[in-house]
Amino acid sequence: MAYDQVHHYLMPTRDKETNFRRFSAGSISGLISVLFTYPLEVFRVRLAFHTKFPEQSNNSLLRSFKQIYHEQATDSRPASGLTPNTNYYFKQYPILKFYRGFSATLIGMIPIRFLAPRTIPLFIWLTLEYI
């Protein structure tokens, strides 16, 4: 659904379609999707950890959610003059705790969104040619 919306916005007519615009539509739609699903993934991983080691914590959904929400930041650097450290942002906006590791996920997604649409036709061609 996100891809269709972005595709229509970037390429309103068929003659506007280019490889770069298709790549951009795929990347942008992937980033939009991850923006909404990443907190659920963090929550899922936390629940899986609690299930694997039940002696460390209770398996309650609400308790796991509260634990993530009330965690302390792990940044031990002191805040320098103009730029506050992550502790400041996590205290001001506790919902950001559900987005830990988000930047690494975004950086890793861009090459995948670029390569996936190009490798599928290659594999189809190789399969038809050699099998």
UniProtKB/TrEMBL annotation:
TM annotation in the entry: 20-40
Main location: membrane
Family classification: Belongs to the mitochondrial carrier (TC 2.A.29) family.
Protein's UniProt name: Mitochondrial carrier
PROSITE patterns referenced in this protein's UniProt entry, alphabetically: SOLCAR
Solcar repeats: 17-126
This protein's UniProt keywords: Membrane, Repeat, Transmembrane, Transmembrane helix, Transport
Keyword presence, Phosphoprotein: no
InterPro entries in UniProt: MCP_dom_sf, MCP_transmembrane
PANTHER family: SOLUTE CARRIER FAMILY 25
A single cellular component GO annotation: membrane
Subcellular location: Membrane
Mode of membrane association: Multi-pass membrane protein
Keyword Membrane: yes
